Amino acid sequence: MSMEIKRSVCPYDCPDTCGLLIEVVNKKAVKVKGDPEHPYTRGTLCPKMVHYEKTVYSPERLTQPLLQKGPKGSDNFEPITWDAAIQIIKERWQHIIAEYGAEAILPYSYAGTMGIVQRNCGEAFFYRLGASCLERTICSSSKGYGWSAVMGSTLVPHPNEALDSDLIILWGTNAMATNIHFLQNVRAAKKKGAKVWLIETYETPTAKVSDQVTLVKPGSDGALALGMMHVIVRDGLTNEQFINEHVQGFSEFKKVLHEYTPEKMSRLTGLKVDVIEELAHLYAKARAPFISLGTGLSRYCNGAMTVRSITCLPALVGAWAKPGGGLMANISTSTAFDTSKVTREDLLKETTRIINMNQLGDALNKTVNPPLMSLFVYHSNPVAVTPDQNMVIKGLLREDLFTVVHERFMTDTALYADLILPATTSLEQPDIYRSYGHYCVQKADAVIEALGEAKSNWEVFALLAQVLGFDEPYFNQTAEEMIKQLLESPTPWLAQVDLEKLSAGYPVELPLPENYKTKFKTPSGKIEIYNNKEEDLLPKYLKPHGDDAPYWFVNSPSIFSLNSSFNEQNELVEKKEKMYLLMHPVDAQVKGFSDGELVSAFNERGKVAFVLKITPLVPSGVVVSEGVFWLRDCPSDSSVNALTSQRLTDRAQGSTFYDTKVDVRSINNI
Ligand SMILES: Nc1nc2c(c(=O)[nH]1)N[C@H]1C(S)=C(S)[C@@H](COP(=O)(O)OP(=O)(O)OC[C@H]3O[C@@H](n4cnc5c(=O)[nH]c(N)nc54)[C@H](O)[C@@H]3O)O[C@H]1N2
Ligand SMILES: Nc1nc2c(c(=O)[nH]1)N[C@H]1C(S)=C(S)[C@@H](COP(=O)(O)OP(=O)(O)OC[C@H]3O[C@@H](n4cnc5c(=O)[nH]c(N)nc54)[C@H](O)[C@@H]3O)O[C@H]1N2
Ligand code: SF4
Ligand SMILES: [Mo]
Q1: Ligand 3 atom having least distance to the Cα of 41
Q2: What is the mean pLDDT of residues 634-644?
Q3: Of the ligands numbered here, which is closest to the C-alpha atom of 17?
Q4: pLDDT level of residue 668 (50, 70, 90 thresholds)
Q5: What is the atom index within ligand 3 of the atom nearest the CA of 181?
Q6: Does pLDDT of 78 surpass 60?
Q7: Is the N or C terminus of the chain more exposed, i.e. has fewer CB atoms within 10 Å?
């Protein structure tokens, strides 16, 4: 018997990007643990990953290419060889290109794996092909935009900064599900006396670690931030010295803030005037206030402006200059690697059309020129995760559309494929990882062999490039060689780490310059509350869009799944119990609903069945569903995104998942 412990990295789209220790016995991964030597993981994993081996060796893994023999969606797949599969793609694409041009082909991918090489290599291939480009803004583009409008490319505080804070605001982040290692810092700060304030739309599991919970009306956080800043200015609680030295446009902003009285903001947010005043005072008087900013509040039609407004708060009180103070948005480590070596935009000969991933439904159904005739989906599950599910499915049902899905499992999307290609898991492929929640980077070799005939993203694009006659050396190398290139000519930031240690598979931390928190990387070198590149020169209140329906529909993350991933582990699906719709007792009473009954949430786009859970954890006027289920586990033939819309955010073309309203009725009345 051979037994080894190998290092790896969690590949999922999670800010924690954990270091893993994999116990490999006789070439099989038998146990997965958190790496105690990883400075952020510190030896613990979330409930989803403690049994990653159950995902890797799931009996449901796809291990052979499969061809649909019946009508679309009929699940009449038959195994074929890789050679045959690649030939089919080649022939279909050559016909499509001859008739409509390569722009009739669209890649669709997001974040099944976050490794730099496997995640991004498809872009090089599709640039070379001349396919339509996918605008990948489903997650947090508006949040990034709002932050940058004020802070430029200033480095986001290290998560350990929070250890020295005396007031941590968890603003629209369900950290108990989505950022559990940051919660370790929150708990440590609490032990030293810090207060934790959660600003949410309902009492999430994260309320348990919070001293205070404030529930705002969905999409109204901009109003709360503006109201708080009004009070801070009105009551003389600003840090004038910091403002004079580091802030652009405060005097203009002050005039605007005058309008945002707590009374007006109370109406918009649904909060009592006292609460806005208390929060403003507590924030301004804290020794070192620290905000951890989630993404939920940015997924509204006013999302970028909301984030822009909140990002001004630390500037007014000089939080950036205080050890333990600041605001943590998504950490950008994009300059640590020269990702353009992987994505190779230079292979694009002529600019091609751009299709926003949130509007896949329209792109597949509406008249576009050239029409979309082929979709190549890899490491994404659009039927489950993309807004306006009914439109996506309608598009995938088009008999003239040639759909290829490269997947680990028979997902809701794979079921609609003409051709399925089996994908490896992260343990079967090499990669190099950076994080959006901390500053560690880490390389991971494959720790086991590929299961069955599964191939990695890199390998699939190499095969396709070969049959299509792409002769650039790029397509003729291995993923390991690509990783080596990234390490052998490191960026100036990466060059500062111990490259030997990194190459050997250990986590290493990117160094932060001294006083980085007050080195503002904006055109003016100051925090730009006033931004002359923006149409709105100063932050202001914008309304969310909503729909013509009575209840806000918040569809937030579950502790036991990650987007639509992990639904292959039955134990995790069972922990979610049922696909619940959470509703306040008073709303349920008005409707005459009883706990546990089947209800349908509906709006102009679709209807979805849920099991009703009556609970005071959600306020009246809001209904909540946690997690993205696979359709097979849903009470009806639709899941949450049948209700969400293809509308985009005010800036940066982002998704607006939470800017959704529904009505609810008893299932018997459908
Ligand atoms: N367990 C688990 N972990 C995950 C994920 C998962 O699905 N499950 N998803 C991963 C991904 S892809 C991402 S991007 C991150 C996201 O991580 P987060 O940023 O923490 O999560 P979000 O989904 O953006 O939403 C967080 C919270 O926003 C709240 N919210 C919605 N609207 C508003 C509002 O108007 N105001 C306020 N104040 N709050 C609001 C929701 O109730 C929800 O609890 O998490 C990652 N980690
Ligand atoms: N209603 C609602 N919808 C949401 C959200 C929400 O909060 N509410 N969150 C949104 C957010 S923040 C995001 S980021 C998106 C995420 O959307 P996606 O990136 O599509 O995320 P997943 O649902 O995790 O699907 C990833 C798929 O990739 C597959 N996969 C994993 N590794 C590999 C690999 O190496 N190669 C290949 N070929 N396949 C692989 C997995 O099996 C899985 O089916 O969802 C969004 N959708
Ligand atoms: S999903 Fe997040 S918390 Fe869980 S192991 Fe992966 S990186 Fe860590
Ligand atoms: Mo995301």
Answers
A1: 8
A2: 98
A3: 3
A4: confident
A5: 3
A6: yes
A7: N
Give the right CATH number for 551-668 from 2.40.40.20, 1.10.10.10, 3.60.110.10, 3.30.360.10. 2.40.40.20
DSSP string, 99-136: HH-GGGEEEEE--S---HHHHHHHHHHHHHHTPPEEE-
Centre of ligand 2 to C-alpha 633, Å, is 17
Domain 141-329+518-528, CATH homologous superfamily name and number: Dimethylsulfoxide Reductase, domain 2 (3.40.228.10)
Residue with tokens 């006789």: 26
Whole-number Å distance between alpha carbons of 165 and 379: 38
Q: Give tens-digit pLDDT for 457-504.
A: 999 999 999 999 999 999 999 999 999 999 999 999 999 999 999 999
Residue 167 clears pLDDT 50, i.e. is over it = yes
Residue with the nearest Cα to atom 8 of ligand 3?
18
Tell me the pLDDT of the chain averaged across its residues: 98
Mean pLDDT of 145-154: 98
d(CA 174, CA 293): 10
Structure tokens at 125: 């291939």
Query: How many C-beta atoms surround the C-beta of residue 208 within 10 A?
Result: 11
DSSP assignment, residue 285? H
* pLDDT in the model for residue 406: 99
Superfamily of domain 3-56: ADC-like domains (2.20.25.90)
CA–centroid distance, residue 554 to ligand 1 (Å): 10
Q: Give me 440's structure tokens.
A: 């560690």
Q: How confident is the model at residue 1 (pLDDT cuts 50, 70, 90)?
A: confident
Beta bridge partners of 67: 78, 419
Rounded mean pLDDT of 595-608? Answer: 98
Here the tokens at position 365 are: 């159904």
Q: Is 305 helix (H, G, I), strand (E, B) or coil?
A: helix
Taken in order 422, 425, 426, 428, is the CA torsion positive or negative?
negative
Q: Which residues contact 368 (CB under 8 A, 6 or more apart)?
A: none
Rounded CA-CA distance 610/422 in Å is 32
For range 251-276, the mean pLDDT: 98
Distance CA 641, CA 662 (A): 12
Atom of ligand 1 nearest to the CA of 140: 14
Question: Could you tell me the distance, in angstroms and rounded to a whole number, from the CA of residue 590 to the centre of ligand 1?
Answer: 29
Q: Is the pLDDT of residue 670 over 90?
A: no
**Alpha-carbon distance 168 to 189, whole Å?**
9
pLDDT (tens digit per residue) in 24-35: 999 999 999 999
Look at ligand 3, atom 3, and give the residue with the nearest C-alpha: 46
How far away, in angstroms, is 565 Cα from ligand 2 center?
6
Its pTM surpasses 0.70: yes
Calculate helix-pair angle for 273-285, 262-269, nearest 10 degrees.
110
Q: What are the domain boundaries of the chain?
A: 3-56, 66-139+344-509, 141-329+518-528, 551-668
Residue 45 in tokens:
């994993």
* Fold of the domain spanning 66-139+344-509: Rossmann fold (3.40.50)
Q: How far apart are CA 188 and CA 196, in angstroms?
A: 11
Q: How far apart are CA 610 and CA 307, in angstroms?
A: 32
- What single DSSP character describes residue 1? -
